[in-house]
Amino acid sequence: MDIPEENVNFGLYREHTPIQTYKLSGRAIFVKRDDLFAKPPAPPLAKLRGIRVLLRNEASSGRRIVGCYQTRVSNIGTALSAACMEFPGLRCVVVYPQSKTYLKPFNIEQVAALGGEMIAIRSNVLPICYAQAKKIVGSMDGRLLPFGMECHESINAIAAEAATVPVSLCCRGTLIVPCGSGVTLAGVLRGLPVKPRSIIGVSSGRSVLNIEKCIRRYVDTSKLKIVAPSMPYDKFPLIDCPFPVDPYYDLKAWKFLSDNVAQLVEPILFWNIGG
Asked: Which end of the chain is more exposed for a tag (fewer CB within 10 A), N or C?
């Protein structure tokens, strides 16, 4: 039986997201649909939890510009543009990499329709691009969203939602979380009412070492296993999933679950983030 969402907020966001039940190789998989936190025109992106809190703080401090760096497969620009709609005084700036083979991001029209401004920079390795984006947004007296949304606002917002998970679904069993930066898994571990027996983060592309470093800054990492990326960040597995997923994040973790479900201890809780 599905566990329904409760206390739906008016506007773009849900206060809580549902846990749905699916069958995989005859076993019950409990899926936390945190990708459903935001409603259209915002994208299905769980990181909007932290973004929303951060924007509230920035708007209260008098900030007028907030920006983000968007990778080629990320939807963070649309998410930030939509989130800024709640704070009319905030202007959204989206910095993205441009090359001969990648001229415009897939969501440029969505960002523009939501009032965001796109700024192209020369494509380079991620740390250099992020530093350039930070310099550009800083020159406007704005704040760039932290890489991977690694900040206390994001960790605490995720933890508050994780605290609503029934104890029966997280004790003695297995937790599987897609990992870009490691922030979502850190927040989930901080908030769950009890720690599962087995905790598995599946990297979408970042190194195991850097994900572990991120998580260790916020929570105890005992019982934690990070699965190294099985393919580059901008590739995804060609498999089906019974619910909507982000192919670059959630689908990689679902493939790991599908390949290993017979060996995992129940109950199995899968945290769907939507990218």
From this structure: N
What pTM did the predictor assign?
0.91
Q: The domain containing residue 176 runs over which residues? A: 19-40+151-272
Instruction: Identify whether residues 112 and 191 lie together within a single domain.
Output: no
Give the chain's domain count. 2
Quickly state the pLDDT bin for 244 (edges 50, 70, 90). Answer: very high
State the residue for tokens 């917002």: 157
Specify whether 214 is located in the same domain as 93.
Answer: no
- How many other C-beta atoms can be found within 10 angstroms of the C-beta atom of residue 181? 21
Q: What are the pLDDT digits (tens) for 185-239?
A: 999 999 999 999 999 999 999 999 999 999 999 999 988 999 999 999 989 999 9
Contacts of 175 by beta carbon, 8 Å cutoff, 6+ apart:
188, 192, 196, 198, 199, 200, 269, 271
Would you say residue 223 lies in a domain? yes
The alpha carbon torsion through 38, 114, 84, 17 (nearest 10 deg) reads: 0
Asked which of 119, 149, 179 is the last residue of a domain, the reply is 149
Q: What's the length of the chain?
A: 275
Please give the Cα distance from 47 to 63 (Å, whole number).
Answer: 21
Do 262 and 162 belong to one domain? yes
